């Protein structure tokens, strides 16, 4: 009889030890899943307050994808200026019209035949200068390594050397035109890039929506 009671007490003790081990395992798993103090809903497990942004912010490639997704889509008539610049920004046709204007009478050939127009707008150099391009100042005339890509409607794109834009080198000024022959562009048409020195209209980018500034060094120096 006594032996049976001893066996029952031993089984009960083992059951208690196993229950304690199971409880500890569950607690450890909860701690790992909570991010060492941060619950699944993003709050601190002890205080109940929202966790710092750094606790849940994506890093690496995930952060880049998240940042790209957060960029607001452009509205008609808006132009985003970015790339290797200190102050990327977005401007509108209304912004361009509020700036000092320059006129350019041009002639060029297009798919529609010979064209002759007078455009009014803002020098492209002034628009890009506001974004503060970051050229390598350790290189002699480092800005001459710069390039500008202009993107318009239908993902149409044309590329320019910085020297074509800089009035210190170029004889004529590339314009962000807001009107053609006295008729203002509406937002659907967007500003138009006008290149007076070109004899063909291929780089007259219509419905302009993006200006990207960079340098050729990563391409040239990284070429095989």
Please write out the topology:
Elements (H helix, E strand, L loop, with lengths): L1 H32 L19 H4 L3 H11 L7 E6 L5 E4 H5 L4 E9 L2 E11 H7 L15 E6 L5 E5 H4 L9 E6 L2 E2 L7 E3 L15 E6 L1 H6 L2
Parallel strand pairs: 1-10
Antiparallel strand pairs: 1-2, 3-4, 4-7, 5-6, 5-10, 7-8, 7-9
Describe this protein's structure.
The chain has 224 residues and is α+β, with helices and mostly antiparallel strands. Helices cover 31% and strands 26% of the residues. It has seven helices and ten strands. Strands 2-1-10-5-6 form a five-stranded mixed beta sheet. Strands 3, 4, 7, 8 and 9 form a five-stranded antiparallel beta sheet that branches. Strand 5 (146-151) and strand 6 (157-161) form a beta hairpin. The longest helix is centred in the N-terminal third of the chain and has 32 residues, at 2-33.
Class by SSE composition: alpha+beta
- How many E strands? 10
Residue share in helix: 25-40%
Radius of gyration: 32 Å
What overall geometry do the principal axes of the alpha carbons give? elongated
Mean pLDDT comes to: 79
Feature tags:
elongated; single chain; alpha+beta; 7 helices; five-stranded mixed beta sheet; 224 residues; five-stranded antiparallel beta sheet
Condensed summary:
This protein is an alpha+beta fold and 224 residues long. It has helices at residues 2-33, 53-56, 60-70, 93-97, 124-130, 162-165, 217-222; strands spanning 78-83, 89-92, 102-110, 113-123, 146-151, 157-161, 175-180, 183-184, 192-194, 210-215. The strands form two sheets. The chain has a five-stranded mixed β-sheet.
């Amino acid at each position: 009889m006594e032996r049976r009671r001893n066996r029952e007490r031993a089984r009960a003790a083992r059951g208690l030890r196993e229950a304690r081990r199971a409880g500890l395992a569950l607690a450890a798993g909860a701690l790992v899943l909570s991010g060492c103090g941060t619950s699944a809903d993003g709050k601190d497990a002890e205080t109940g307050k929202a966790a710092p942004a750094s606790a849940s912010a994506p890093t690496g490639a995930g952060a880049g994808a998240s940042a790209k997704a957060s960029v607001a889509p452009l509205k008609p008539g808006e132009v985003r200026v970015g790339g290797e610049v200190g102050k990327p920004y977005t401007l509108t046709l209304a912004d361009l019209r509020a700036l000092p204007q320059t006129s350019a009478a041009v002639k060029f050939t297009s798919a529609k035949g010979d064209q002759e127009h007078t455009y009014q707008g803002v020098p492209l150099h002034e628009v890009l200068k506001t974004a503060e391009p970051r050229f390598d100042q350790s290189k002699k005339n480092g800005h001459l390594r710069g390039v500008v890509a202009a993107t318009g409607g239908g993902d149409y794109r044309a590329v320019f050397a910085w020297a074509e834009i800089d009035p210190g080198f170029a004889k004529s000024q590339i314009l962000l035109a807001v009107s053609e022959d006295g008729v203002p562009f509406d937002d659907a048409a967007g500003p138009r890039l006008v290149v007076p020195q070109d004899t063909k209209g291929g780089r007259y980018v219509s419905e302009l929506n993006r200006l990207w500034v960079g340098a050729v060094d990563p391409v040239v120096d990284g070429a095989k």
